[in-house]
Amino acid sequence: MSKPITLYSHATGPNPWKVAMVLEELNVPYDTKFMDFADLKKDPYEQLCVNGRVPAIEDPNTGINIWESGAIVEYLAETYDTKHELSFEKGPEKYQVKQWLHFQMSGQGPYYGQCAWFNKFHPERLAAPTERYDEQVKRVLYVLNKALTGKKYLVGEKCTIADISFVPWNEMLGFILGDKLASWDVEKNYPAYHAWHQSLLARPAVKKTWEAKQKVASGGGQ
Amino acid sequence: MSKPITLYSHATGPNPWKVAMVLEELNVPYDTKFMDFADLKKDPYEQLCVNGRVPAIEDPNTGINIWESGAIVEYLAETYDTKHELSFEKGPEKYQVKQWLHFQMSGQGPYYGQCAWFNKFHPERLAAPTERYDEQVKRVLYVLNKALTGKKYLVGEKCTIADISFVPWNEMLGFILGDKLASWDVEKNYPAYHAWHQSLLARPAVKKTWEAKQKVASGGGQ
Fold first, then answer.
1. Dist. CA B187–CA A151, nearest whole Å
2. Are A16 and A43 spatial neighbours (Cβ–Cβ below 8 Å)?
3. How far is A202 from chain B (nearest CA, A)?
4. CA distance A53 to chain B (A)
5. Cβ distance B12 to B37 under 8 Å?
6. In angstroms, what separates the C-alpha of A162 from chain B's closest C-alpha?
7. Residue A136 near residue A114, CB atoms below 8 Å
8. Is there a contact between A52 and B143 if contact means CB atoms under 8 Å apart?
9. How confident is the model at residue A50, as a pLDDT?
10. How far is CA B82 from CA B76, B85, B87, in A?
11. B57 touches B48 (CB < 8 A)
């Protein structure tokens, strides 16, 4: 039995929940520390993560402390997924998982984040950047839908850390876009994407994690 | 002697040049195919890269074809850096390299890209998004400078794929920001960042690659 990993998280931000989903999938024990945004960009947290963002982890079993959700889920798979239930040991599939994980990190997360900023948080609703990032989100849905047509998962015949990594931002589209999302008719226009996302949400580890997020985000504690 | 890898690239975009730098560093033979943007988002290129972006590689030695620059440089290091000149085999350093590579992919590239869009390419100069992305670039410079203070490289005592990966976007700041960059006084305000970036530019493989990019971008052929 390994000692629990410490996961530095936040109630509403999507990226720490990606790590929590992978920890739950792999049955790795962990304790969550929920951070206030105000405490991230100063010591002692900056000593752990100079980038001042969550997630970060401390693993007492290996002494390894790292940040960046993409790096963390790769670390967890390489360290704890010894049966390769969520990963591939070698071959093209190993690198296809990396490819999709990097696409999630660089192509989904930042653009969904900008979409959220200009649709929800910026003081004014500015037409040009809002349209720009709405189109970027649609482009990601198009790419995922095209890649998933005729397939259940992004790589090979099983769910991997790459699939899981897309769940939190995709599931937040309703919050980000509100009524606009209905007008996009995701189920009709991106059917393979839609079926895949629903299948991921139905996984017990993902479902448990997302329910915990909703409870914490609504102020109900963990 | 391995057969040459095919690198799908573009004259002006920064990300394929990151891959070229790593190939040069590792002395791996490769041929570059320069693509027009108009040909990326349709077949046959979408058959290779459903995301319709460069870079992508085809490696005839392993039969592995992948896209996303972060995944490609990890693949190249794991396949061809058998002496671990640009990577670490194990331990905390292995995952710290992943951490910085994912930060480059998710934290530097997309934000520098938005900074370029609103400073250079969007039809109008819009104050709010331009200021937003200028501030994001400064934040990346702050994080890198803080991490590099008292150190020569991001991880351990050697240059890795993580360091190299930051070069193209950082070197493009002059093009993106023009005179504005001088007002930021990078050398004074981010001295550890500045020294690191200059040391990376002076590496023969990096220098050769960037000179080739400048030649191609100016229409002079490869």
1. 51
2. no
3. 26
4. 11
5. no
6. 12
7. yes
8. yes
9. 96
10. 10, 8, 9
11. no
Q: Would you say the C-alpha torsion A87, A99, B105, B27 has a positive or negative sign?
A: positive
pLDDT tens for each residue of B27-71:
999 999 999 999 999 999 999 999 999 999 999 999 999 999 999
Closest chain A residue by Cα to residue B58: A92
Q: How far apart are CA A99 and CA B6, in angstroms?
A: 17
Chain B residues whose beta carbon lies within 8 Å of the beta carbon of residue A67: 99
Q: Domains for chain B: give ranges and CATH numbers.
A: 5-84+209-214 (3.40.30.10), 91-206 (1.20.1050.10)
Taking 60 as the threshold, does the pLDDT of residue B222 lie above it?
A: no
Pair type for strands A64-67 and A56-59: antiparallel
- A92 → chain B, closest CA residue: B64
What type of residue sits at position B51? Answer: N
What digits encode the pLDDT tens for the residues A111-131? Answer: 999 999 999 999 999 999 999
pLDDT, averaged across chain A: 96
Residue B104 near residue B22 (C-beta atoms within 8 A): no
pLDDT digits (tens, 9 = 90+) for A55-103: 999 999 999 999 999 999 999 999 999 999 999 999 999 999 999 999 9
Test mutation, A46, A93, A99, chain B, max B CBs within 10 A:
A99
Q: How far is B75 from chain A (nearest CA, A)?
A: 7
Cβ neighbour number for residue B198 with a 10 Å cutoff: 10
Residue of A nearest to B123 (CA): A128
Q: Which of A71, A110, A126 sits opposite B95 (nearest CB)?
A: A71
What average pLDDT is seen over chain B?
96
Contact B129 A128 (CB under 8 A): yes
Identity of residue B39: D
Amino acid at A13: G
Per CB-CB distance under 8 Å, the chain A contacts of B75 are 95, 98
Chain B's closest residue to A154, CA to CA, is B50
CB A128 within 8 A of CB B126: yes
Q: Which of B76, B71, B86 is nearest to B30 (CA)?
A: B76
Smallest CA–CA distance from A76 into chain B, residue: B95
In Å, how far is B51's CA from the nearest CA of chain A? 6
